[in-house]
Amino acid sequence: MQKKLSKSNDKKLFGVCGGIAEFFDLDPTLIRIAFLLAFFCFGSGLLLYLICAIVMPSAPAN
Q: Could you tell me if residue 20 is inside a domain?
């Protein structure tokens, strides 16, 4: 079965970082740190997070 990128049910805000972490089999904390670094270093982390929160579909109910 092919994996689909979707928001996670295990979420802090919108489930974006958890969904990305599940898709790439990573720890969600690493993704959250990457978004924070992008926010503080480049200023684009918040915008990217909000776009992902709007565009990514919700996780299917199990």
A: yes
Residue 56: predicted pLDDT = 92
61, part of any domain:
no
**Size of the chain, expressed as the number of residues it contains:** 62
User: How many domains, the chain?
Assistant: 1
Cβ-count burial 9-45 (b if 16+ within 10 Å, e if not): eeeeebbbbbbbbbeeeeebeebbeebeebeeeeeeb
Query: Token pair for residue 15?
Result: 């489930």
Whether residue 7 is contained in a domain is answered as no
pLDDT digits (tens, 9 = 90+) for 31-43: 999 999 999 998 8
Q: Is the pLDDT of residue 16 over 90?
A: yes
32's tokens: 């959250």
Rounded mean pLDDT, 14-22: 92
